[in-house]
Amino acid sequence: MESSPTVVDIHTHIYPPSYLSLLRNRTTVPYLLDLPDKSLPPRLIILPSDDDVSIPPESRGRPIDASYSSIEEKVRFMDVHNIQTSVVSLANPWLDFLAPDESASWARTVNDELEALCSQNKQTRLYAFATLPLSSSPEMIVAETTRLQQLPHIKGIILGTTALGSGLDDPALNSIWSVLEQTKTLIFLHPHYGLPNEVYGPRAAEYGHVLSLALGFPLETTIAFTRMYLSGVFDRFPALRVLIAHAGGTVPYLAGRIESCVQHERHFKPDKEGGRRGPRRDLKTVLRENVWLDAVVYQEASVQAAIELVGKEKVMFGTDHPFFPPLAPGAEEWESVATNLEAVGGTEARDMIMGANAAELLGLKHVSV
Predict the structure, then answer these.
(1) How far, in Å, CA of 153 to CA of 115, rounded?
(2) How does pLDDT run across 151-204, given as a tens digit for each residue?
(3) How far apart are CA 151 and CA 139, in angstroms?
(4) Which end of the chain has the lower number of beta carbons within 10 A, N or C?
(5) Sign of dihedral through CA atoms 282, 286, 288, 293?
(6) Is 145 exposed, middle or buried (0-12, 13-18, 19+ CB in 10 A)?
């Protein structure tokens, strides 16, 4: 009988109580909307398209039940799906929306709470990716990154695509890339902002969130990573480590085209008009040496593409819990998790992807692989 692999969930989210309290005290996006009928869960409004007064309050955003904030519910979900270890991260939109004078203190509060939630689990099944105060000054962000090294359950940081507000090719990020490289802190690159609503057309509202989540998120991620590459981030910081969400967006399918465009770009040829040097390392090398991908992509062909791009030892299982919950009321098992398990299970690298790769990357010495 074939044995089951040890499972590490690298992509799983939580809104800790302090963060929900922060959102509950806001009235602009993002905010938590409590309904008059207290038997109904509050609604999380994190996208401008959800903040529409023409939509009944009980239909705006998404309902937030205990699965979004309870560590006990997280562990119960893990038990149902035979997940031994999870690396939880604050879900989007993180702290990007805060005023500069609030961001650093809230980052400390949230990160300390994540550490406490993980440490209260006596079986050492929980770890976390911390969040950074990106609306604060680079000096404060560097200070928090340094402080995180003292928290034993913190295994990296989650980072949105806008960073300080100008994207991941912003030169002002150099000091932050530097400290992340020096401390060997893994960057979990995750989308939130999608694409401008105009690209979805006048009928977009009829399709709910399908266009923004299925297409907007992966393309947002792809553009953000490509801007990092084109601006020479991986030339200046060659030991930087980046885990890209949702199997790299569309990077596995477009990497060859990106590389070809770079090679033929006149702007990057010093001997041509207006030319200046582009990225020095080729994209294939950066992907093989600096990039890891999760396997939250729901089909085997896409998992195989991720493996071919970065190598079988650099792809890792994830669930994206608590998003994409069961479709049937009261169901215990999540179809989205089953789909990801099926996608990974068909590959030769199943055991590596399901847990061994994450244990090796994050130094999870207790995890049996």
Answers:
(1) 6
(2) 999 999 999 999 999 999 999 999 999 999 999 999 999 999 999 989 999 999
(3) 20
(4) N
(5) negative
(6) buried
Q: Of how many residues is the chain composed?
A: 369
- Indicate whether 367 pLDDT > 80: no
Residue 17 near residue 10 (C-beta atoms within 8 A): no
**Distance in angstroms (rounded) separating the CA atoms of residues 351 and 230:** 34
Tens digits of per-residue pLDDT, 50-109?
Answer: 898 888 999 999 999 999 999 999 999 999 999 999 999 999 999 999 999 999 999 999
DSSP string, 297-355: TSSHHHHHHHHHHH-GGGEE----BTSS--SSTT-SS-HHHHHHHHHHHTSTTHHIIII
List the beta strands (DSSP E) in the chain: 8-14, 31-33, 43-45, 62-63, 85-90, 126-131, 154-159, 187-189, 242-244, 291-294, 315-316
Flag whether the pTM goes above 0.85: yes
Tokens of 25: 């005290």
Residue 196 vs residues 134, 139, 161, 368: alpha-carbon distances, Å: 22, 31, 14, 44
Write out 128-174 in H/E/C secondary structure: EEEECCCCCCHHHHHHHHHHHCCCCCEEEEEECCCCCCCCCCCHHHH
Residue with tokens 């905010």: 31
87 CA to centre of own chain: 11
At 85, list the tokens.
């270890």
- The predicted pLDDT at position 268 comes to 87
Q: In whole angstroms, how far apart are CA 93 and each of 223, 258, 260, 310?
A: 18, 28, 34, 28
